[in-house]
Write a structure and sequence with these properties.
915 residues; alpha/beta; five-stranded parallel β-sheet; 35 helices; 40% helix; globular
């Protein structure tokens, strides 16, 4: 097949074929190309109706998908809804304009909502189900820049006050919770917003995986989500983000007809046209059709229907098809005479078509995204469509109804309306507000007054009744989930016993505990294991036969490994989410699962395990969105470390994810060295995130990020006097120096996290045996948490000048410890250096700064100078700087161990845990 047409198929009846071709040629000669094209399209349509396997067209004409005769009856009062829409438009624009008065100027966006007001209001009045609707209500992703319109509607509904509108983008200066966030931010407004959407592109992929997770909950029997739909509002410029279009096939493959995207195609991005020389709606239609979506185009308002009906020669459709977006932008800001001359004037048949219309009528020919009936028809069709996700491509004008902004390239940056602009805007909306009212308020405040028709007005009663019928006001975030009963200490006993003579990696310790959790009666079914095509890498293939991989259609084939004990198995009620090679998709699933306690009233526990390097580095923005959505769960950075994932090389070597994690206030990072530490951290994660306390009655809004390693090590038994407080806060003393060193020996303190701990254990022995130096060992479970505690202590002290200053926890723990402090990890120096300011003794840090590479672990660690021998030399040097050993000793150790020469460890073998 080439371009969807057969080119090499044998002709079984050439004479019949020729008859058809001759007939087509005759029609072409007699009636012309446009008529021939029309007949061909009708034949393709009829072929689809009879299930003839003809390839679909990638794009259709630049006209509405739904013909006028197929539009459904509009059930609302259009005039009342027009007035409501006008009130909201006005208040949204005034709110942003007020926020940019002199002396405040906090920004905002006016134009986006003005272009999409009809799209939202059709949804609010007729389609979007609230939390009290049967089945639990819909999930609505509202375009971030359109937030002012949603605030304006909430004001009319009585959910927000005029005072709050005046505090748009002022979240602190009037007191916490008394202002309005700039965009949809659940963390900042946890009872209002449900989904954070302003990080461009993430709405798209997150909404797909939210719709998929809804089906997952349903198919696993956890909740009936059959009546819930996901609606996502996006911009045409936003579609340029890779995440926007990157997961389209997932939605089509899984037949997510519970998902509708509404793309506001105002043809503009932030600074100019999306594609001035092209046609973005046509491009998007081709993308979505090719990916298997149902596409509905809403391009022209009803006033165009009569003109299209007159288009017997197809010249109008041809002009629509061939006019680039940049020209349509120009037409939207020019008058009717200009449009008559430049759009209709190119062909005498076009000019004749509009000769009965005045210039003003031509100027007012609307785009489809502003026509309530056209939009309603599209939403209605999308809601009833089965078997495919739907995208509605709505043609609009950015800044519509505001003359000073309408259709202009700079409209996105325009945030302030002048007095004349406001009056023209008022007139365009037919708002019952006098010049005197506008003048008085503008002269006093620099902007216009808000408008409210009164809570007993017909408009307010209408909109409130519509929301009542649909299940209550939205957006709204509620928590109805029941508290979980988490496993007790018995579940963690195995990991606390140590590994005896065998060796296990901390990654395996995590997987063992996860398996135990999944067997637990209370939380087992609520665990959502997630991996991007790496379950086998992390030793989790044993879960395939029992937990199974989720697939909404089951497994329609015999697996190639079906005869094996650990065979691959997919099922409708599978528990494992196998995301393929898509960390972005995996994060979207983690976000959907982690916020299920609020979106669905069902606590689910995402357990996303991934190659450490491809977590925070690749999907950090998604993790921010997950945190903003107040999602909880476990992120497991497996195969962590810059020298531990041997053989894989530069792009697989994680030397910095703790630093990236430190930038996110919601992420609690641990880097455990021992299996018993893993057990305590995971147990504490469940406690903090999923049980009730006085401070956090619904659980704590944090995400536990744990870095674990694929290198097998001997796991010690949990000490009887384990300092649990220190373990959770980030540091505890693991062991004293060997007694053989004696009380007068020079002393150092060795700190290590994660896979670095065996290095300091060996260094402790070498220091004692070869150099007579005593070394105490400290396990640092979290450099990040120690640094955060120290910063909080200083902040508290700053704000309590009359009280005794608080001391950082790490300072308290190391007080009295004798000798310099030497820290090491499998990360760059900046990770341990976070605590440098609060370490009471001389602080020396080793780390893996620089690019990673492929080699053995011993060679890599010698290259970066973090292995045991390097720790020894660094310790001796620290003592020499204090005058406690002679400088010659350092030089002797350096020569003995050759820590500057990776070839010195070329014959050292490594064991297990390969990539």
């Amino acid at each position: 097949m080439h371009e969807g047409l057969p080119t090499q198929l044998p002709d079984i009846d050439p004479d019949e074929t020729q008859d058809w071709l001759d007939s087509f040629d005759a029609m072409l000669d007699d009636r012309g190309r446009d008529r021939a094209r029309y007949v061909m399209l009708r034949l393709l349509e009829r072929a689809r109706q009879h299930s003839v396997g003809v390839p679909g067209l990638r794009s259709t004409d630049y006209i509405n998908t739904i013909a006028p005769e197929r539009e459904p009856w509009f059930p609302g009062d259009e005039e009342t809804e027009r007035r409501i829409r006008a009130f909201i438009r006005w208040n949204a624009a005034v709110m942003v304009s007020d926020a940019n008065r002199p002396g405040l100027e906090v920004g905002g966006h006016i134009a986006t909502y003005q272009s999409s007001a009809s799209l939202y209001e059709v949804g609010f009045n007729h389609f979007f189900k609230g939390k009290d609707a049967p089945g639990g209500g819909d999930q609505i992703y509202i375009q971030g820049h359109a937030a002012p319109g949603v605030y304006a509607r909430a004001y009319l509904e009585g959910r927000l006050t005029e005072e709050q509108l005046l505090r748009f983008r002022q979240e602190v200066q009037h007191g916490k919770g008394k202002g309005l966030s700039s965009y949809p931010h659940p963390r900042l407004m946890p009872e209002f917003w449900e989904f954070p959407t302003v990080s461009m592109g993430l709405t798209a992929i997150n909404s797909i995986y939210q719709a998929r997770f809804n089906r997952y909950l349903h198919n696993r029997g956890i909740k009936d989500t059959s009546q819930q739909n996901v609606w996502a509002f996006l911009g045409d410029g936003e579609m340029a983000e890779p995440e926007s279009l990157g997961a389209l096939r997932v939605a089509a493959r899984e037949e997510l007809d519970n998902l509708t995207w509404v793309i506001n195609c105002n043809l503009q991005q932030l600074d100019g046209p999306v594609t001035g020389n092209g046609k973005i709606i046509q491009e998007l239609e081709a993308n979505f059709r090719g990916a298997g979506w149902n596409v509905i185009k809403v391009i022209w308002g009803r006033e165009w229907d009569d003109l299209l009906a007159r288009d017997v020669d197809g010249v109008l459709v041809n002009a629509m098809n061939s006019t680039p977006d940049g020209a349509f932008q120009t037409y939207s800001v020019e008058d009717g005479a200009y449009n008559r001359e430049h759009f209709f004037g190119a062909d005498p048949r076009l000019r004749k078509m509009v000769e009965h219309m005045s210039d003003r009528q031509i100027e007012k020919l609307p785009r489809g995204g502003h026509d309530y009936r056209k939009v309603y028809a599209a939403f209605d069709s999308a809601a009833k469509h089965a078997g495919q996700p739907t995208v509605i491509l709505a043609h609009t004008v950015k800044g519509w109804t505001i003359e000073g902004l309408e259709g202009k390239n700079a409209s996105h940056q325009m945030k302030k309306l002048k007095k004349d602009d406001l009056k023209k805007f008022r007139d365009r909306l037919y708002l019952p507000m006098s010049d005197k009212e506008i003048d008085a308020t503008y002269d006093a405040t620099g902007t216009a007054p808000f408008f409210h028709p009164g809570k007993d007005s017909a408009e307010i009663e209408y909109m409130m009744e519509r929301r009542h019928q649909l299940g209550g006001s939205i957006p709204r975030r509620v928590i109805r989930a029941k508290e979980l009963k988490v496993p007790g200490d018995e579940s963690y006993k195995e990991l606390k016993q140590g590994s005896g003579k065998s060796k296990i990696a901390t990654t395996m310790a995590v997987v063992r505990l996860l398996r135990d959790w999944m067997k637990n009666e209370e939380i087992g079914k609520r665990i959502v294991p997630i991996a991007p095509d790496e379950y086998r890498t992390f030793g989790m293939d044993s879960m395939f036969p029992s937990a199974k991989v989720y697939n909404p259609f089951g497994q329609r084939y015999e697996s190639v490994d079906r005869k094996l004990l650990l065979k691959w198995r997919e099922d409708v009620d599978g528990q494992l989410l196998h995301e393929g090679i898509s960390e972005a998709g995996a994060m979207a699933s983690a976000t959907a699962a982690g916020s299920s306690y609020s979106t669905h009233g069902e606590v689910m526990i995402p357990f996303y395990i991934f190659y450490s390097m491809f977590g925070f580095q690749r999907t950090g923005d998604s993790i921010w969105a997950m945190a903003d959505q107040l999602a909880r769960g476990f992120l497991i950075g497996a195969t962590a470390g810059r020298t531990t994932l041997t053989g894989e090389g530069l792009q697989h070597a994680d030397g910095h994810s703790p630093l990236l994690a430190a930038t996110n206030p919601a992420v609690v990072h641990y880097d455990p060295a021992h299996a018993y530490e893993v057990a305590h951290i995971m147990q504490d994660g469940l406690r903090r995130m999923y049980t009730s306390t006085e401070e956090h009655p619904h659980g704590e809004d944090v995400i536990f990020y744990m870095t674990v390693y694929n290198e097998p090590t001997s796991q010690p038994k949990e000490p009887e006097d384990l300092d649990l407080e220190g373990l959770f806060k980030g540091i505890y003393k693991f062991g004293e120096a060997p007694e053989s060193t004696g009380g007068d020996a020079p002393r150092v303190q060795l700190l290590a996290s994660g896979i670095g701990f065996p290095w300091v254990e060996k260094a402790q022995r070498l220091l004692a045996d070869d150099w007579g130096v005593a070394a105490d060992l400290w396990s640092v479970t979290s450099w990040n948490e120690l640094a955060r505690d120290a910063v909080e202590a200083e902040k508290w002290s700053l704000n309590h000048p009359e009280e005794q200053a608080r001391e950082a926890y790490v300072t308290t723990k190391l007080e009295g410890a004798v000798g310099p402090v030497v820290a090491v990890s499998d990360y760059m120096r900046a990770v341990p250096l976070q605590i440098a300011h609060w370490v009471p003794e001389d602080f020396h840090v080793l780390g893996t700064d620089g690019f990673g590479f492929a080699d053995t672990r011993p060679a890599a660690r010698r290259f970066f100078q973090v292995d045991a021998e390097s720790v020894v030399v660094a310790s001796l040097r620290a003592l020499a700087q204090r005058g406690e050993v002679k400088p010659e000793v350092v030089a002797e150790a350096f020569a003995k161990y050759r820590i500057d020469d990776p070839t010195a460890v070329a014959d050292v073998k490594q064991e297990g845990g390969d990539a």
